[in-house]
Amino acid sequence: MRSYTRVFVGQLLLTAVCCSAGLFFLLVGYSAWSEAPGWGWPVLLFAIGLVVTVLIPFVATTATRQMFPRITRGHRVKGGRTSYEDDTFVMWAPKSPEGSAQARLTRADVLEASLSRYCPDGESTFTTHYGNYTPDEFTPLIRLRLRVHEAGDTEPANAFEVTGEWRVPSLCLSAITAGRLVVLVDPAAPGAERTVTPHWPRSALLAGTRTCRVTDLEGRTTFVTRRVERQLRQMRISREAGGVVMNGDTIDLRRLDPHTAARYAAVAERDRTHPEAPAPVSEPGEEARRLADQLPGEEGTFGSSGRGWSRRGGVLVRARFLEMRARTTFQDHGPVLDTVLRIQPPDGTPPFDAARRLTVPMNYLTALHRTKEAVLSASPNGVSYDVDWARTNLLAGITEAKVITPDGRELPLAGRPDTIWALMNLLASHGLSNPSPVLDLRKRRMREVADVLLEVCAKSG
């Protein structure tokens, strides 16, 4: 609550300074009207000043709500829940060029990735580019080394490598970390290099960031996320048909034209007779593709907790993103997205879905193929929830967590989100802040809970 108040006070002072002309008009108009009552220019000046002054708290409140990631009852979706399954993730990402009709749609493996340029000038304020979802200023330029497979062939010997720089929409950065892209390869003239163009929304689907289900003509639904070869075949059919609309994360064959539905059904039948194992969450060699340390966003930490908040019943809550939709507004550290989260209340009541416009840090978006979880701080009365990006990024593995035991040993917690979550909750319940990814139990303030924290590490290990 105090954090929200500080943000509001700051915005109130900033708005008052920016609108100081209104206060000046108010005073001058009132002074002139007192000396010469009437309906002349003093009244007009006074009215303008009054309107501008009255708007100051409203503008400050609106700006604070936009900046502060608080979820209230007003953000709950109608009916309490959407129709999404718990493991659903729907993404509306900016479109990519479809390329020429002769271009082949195929898979490319990301061998190396590094940030070439990202230089926004927004100074952390909100910047809107009307009609443009991928302005160069807020779209990182990434240098990639790719291994491009021949269509229908995944043997490395039959692939070729290409290196280049591409603008990558922030929502699709996780496809690079996962290491699987969908690319369009244009045929080249003799002696010329082939043109390779990544298709970013399809890449997010192939990487497993976006989930995918297919409902057949009999109404049976199959989960096909990370079934790489099946998805590539489906994408080629969709491209040849001019596009297939997904209902959330589901392709319903009963809604397609008979010819396209039959082709999808043939792919499904092939998958039933020759089942395909799901691809790994991330392809080998992820360290060479890691962009989280090169892009802006909060450092992951165990978080800060006020003793008053803890004593009054404030707790941490785990939530999961079900939907993210691109917008044309950005901040330096990430895009502003329309999101839907599923929140499990701390009192054990059924989970509910909330729709909230949030600025999502770019370093978090690089790990979206691996996790969609978020950490929320619940108010003591349970009516509001604040998105805690520092704790979220630690839980997501953006920053590596570790514990230093009282005798100086280091316990790395990489790949152990449940252990990190248990430690966060213990610290929060005792009102202990640790704004660092390193939990040092040698510190004096940690002595009373050191044994319990070590027991949690041992049990979860």
Describe the structure.
With 461 residues, this protein is of the alpha+beta class. 31% of the residues lie in helices and 24% in strands. It has helices at residues 2-18, 20-35, 41-67, 173-178, 200-207, 228-240, 258-273, 307-311, 362-365, 389-395, 417-429, 450-460; strands at residues 70-71, 90-92, 104-117, 127-128, 141-149, 159-167, 180-186, 195-198, 213-215, 221-223, 250-252, 315-325, 329-331, 334-343, 352-359, 373-378, 385-387, 402-404, 410-412, 438-440. The strands form four sheets. Strands 1, 2, 4, 12, 13, 14, 15, 16 and 17 form a nine-stranded mixed sheet that branches. It has a five-stranded antiparallel sheet with strand order 6-5-3-7-8. Helix 5 runs antiparallel to helix 6, helix 6 (228-240) runs antiparallel to helix 7 and helix 11 packs antiparallel against helix 12.
Structural class: alpha+beta
Helix content: 25-40%
N→C terminal distance: 35 Å
Please tally the helical runs, counting DSSP H or I stretches of 4 or more residues: 12
The major sheet is characterized as: 9 strands, mixed
Mean of residue pLDDT values: 89
The beta-strand count equals 20
List keywords for this structure.
12 helices, 5-stranded antiparallel beta sheet, alpha+beta, 24% strand, 9-stranded mixed beta sheet, 20 strands, 461 residues
